[in-house]
Amino acid sequence: MKTVSQFNFSGHRAVIRVDFNVPLDKQTFAVTDDNRLRAALPTINKIINEGGAVVLMSHLGRPKTGPEDKYSLRHVVQPLSVLLAKPVQFVNDCIGDVAVNAAKNLKAGEILLVENLRFHPEEEKGDELFAQELAKLGDVYVNDAFGTAHRAHASTTIIAKYFDAAHKMFGFLMAAEVAAGTKVLHHHEKPFTAIIGGAKVTDKIMILERLLEKADNIIIGGGMAYTFFKAMGGNIGSSLCEADKLDTAKELLEKAKTKGVQILLPVDSILADKFDNAAQIQSGDSNNIPDGWMGLDIGEKAIQQFTDVIAASKTILWNGPMGVFEMENFSKGTITIAKAIAAATKSGAYSLVGGGDSVAAVNKFHLADEVSYVSTGGGAMLEFFEGKVLPGVAAIEA
Ligand code: AMP
Q1: Is the pLDDT assigned to residue 186 strictly greater than 80?
Q2: pLDDT tens digit string along 278-305?
Q3: pLDDT at position 357, please?
Q4: Could you say which of 98, 99, 102, 241 has the lowest number of CB atoms within 10 Å?
Q5: CA distances from 362 to 105, 201, 308, 349, 369 (A)
Q6: What is the structure's pLDDT at 276?
Q7: What is the mean pLDDT of the chain?
Q8: Which of 136, 161, 200, 364 is labelled catalytic?
């Protein structure tokens, strides 16, 4: 894997695709979570410390019709310069004379951030001319935006064409993400347990199919588990159910049997009479839920069974919460599973947490430092585990 660690940036100007798609306060536009800015620091610091100059480009939000102040990357300048302890220059376009001249005037150790790439619709279209314009911003291209590696956009993929093999590479974050995913999917120690949760079976079919080829155990929790109980003929009350996925669920269970993969569903659940933290609560079997009740978290027996399997695992992948963890009364399953993963990691297992809501859960429960790797790229990591080639990765490796 070609990374920034093998290149000396002295005298070079690197154009880095970062993922600065950070949440902003609606009124003040202050950055409310700077994790994505922090994640880019190692790559930026390596380059400027070696005497290189840095041009940063990113998208922010989903602007529809061109420039909009609420999506301007200028809101990122101040917090970024605090984190880097250095001034960050800014230009209000990412292409054209203003941007190219500002880039060319950078001295060693200086940093320029250009305006939101998605203010130009050509970015998401993967437009070649636009990518060629972006390529003028540097003599080395670095991709450190794993979160958009599954998109063939101008700045994530097409731009790579305009640099030779010696002058395009992965940043530290991107390299770490790819290495973590590769380790789990291709070089894992067994037993390998995948824990898949969240709301919808639809979103997770492809990853489940792929994991049937790789994992020893697949734990299924969260709202998606009830479609499986229904498919097996159970009563699930008013729990989440995707009626059009009953056959798929059945097929997945059958395939698992043929392949000798153990699928674990939550035998019991925490049931509620409405989707509300203040609902009436009881526990009960997941395959016999009374009418008017819904499963919003895994129950005690399931927690015990899942915890035992996790404790005996050497590789663990976690994607998706076990219940409605945002509501305190239905968060115990997700917290306990997160803690079980942390404990297994302490005993020597390798654990990767990837996918928006399970990442939010480990952060919420302050366990991010107790697992082996927390992925920053929800959609990209999911597609990686689905076995898809990520265009942003392929473009550098080409
Ligand atoms: P996903 O984005 O598909 O990973 O789903 C995450 C969402 O699923 C979270 O917002 C959870 O609150 C929700 N969720 C998890 N378990 C359940 C459940 N049993 N019923 C309804 N929603 C759930």
Answers
A1: yes
A2: 999 999 999 999 999 999 999 999 999 9
A3: 85
A4: 98
A5: 43, 22, 20, 17, 9
A6: 98
A7: 96
A8: 200
At 218, phi and psi to the nearest 5?
Answer: -125, 115
Query: Which residue, 11, 13, 30, is CA-closest to 22?
Result: 30
φ, ψ for residue 310, nearest 5 deg: -65, -40
Active-site residue, selected from the candidate residues 17, 36, 214, 332: 36
What confidence score (pLDDT) does residue 319 get? 94
Annotated active-site residue 356? The verdict is: yes
Give per-residue pLDDT as tens, 270-282.
Answer: 999 999 999 999 9
Give the Cβ contact number of residue 232 at 10 Å: 12
Q: Which residues form the pocket of ligand 1, taking CB atoms under 6 Å from any ligand atom?
A: 198-200, 203, 222-223, 240, 295-296, 320-321, 323-324, 326, 356-357
Q: What are the distances in angstroms from CA 367 to CA 41, 305, 346, 354?
A: 22, 21, 12, 14
Q: Which residues of 305-329 are buried (b: 16+ CB within 10 A; e: fewer)?
A: bbbebbeebbbbbbbbbbbbbebeb
DSSP H or E stretch at residue 77: helix 74-84
Residue among 324, 332, 359 whose CB has most ligand 1 atoms within 8 A, to mutate: 324
pLDDT above 80: residue 200: yes
Task: Delineate the domains of the chain, giving CATH numbers in brackets.
Answer: 4-176 (3.40.50.1260), 188-385 (3.40.50.1260)
Say what the pTM is.
0.91
Q: In this predicted model, what pLDDT tens digit does every residue of 321-368 receive, in sequence order?
A: 999 999 999 999 999 999 999 999 999 999 999 876 888 899 889 999
Rounded to the nearest 5 percent, the helix, strand and coil shares of the chain are 45, 15, 40
DSSP for 151-164, please give it: S--TTTTGGGGGS-
Query: What DSSP character marks residue 31?
Result: B
Give whole-number Cα distances, 219 to 156, 267, 284, 307, 333, in Å: 34, 11, 19, 10, 13
Task: Give first-to-last CA distance, the chain, whole Å.
Answer: 11
Tokens at residue 280, please?
């009436």
CA-closest residue to ligand 1 atom 18: 223
Contact 245, 228 (CB under 8 A): no
Q: What pLDDT sits at residue 174?
A: 96
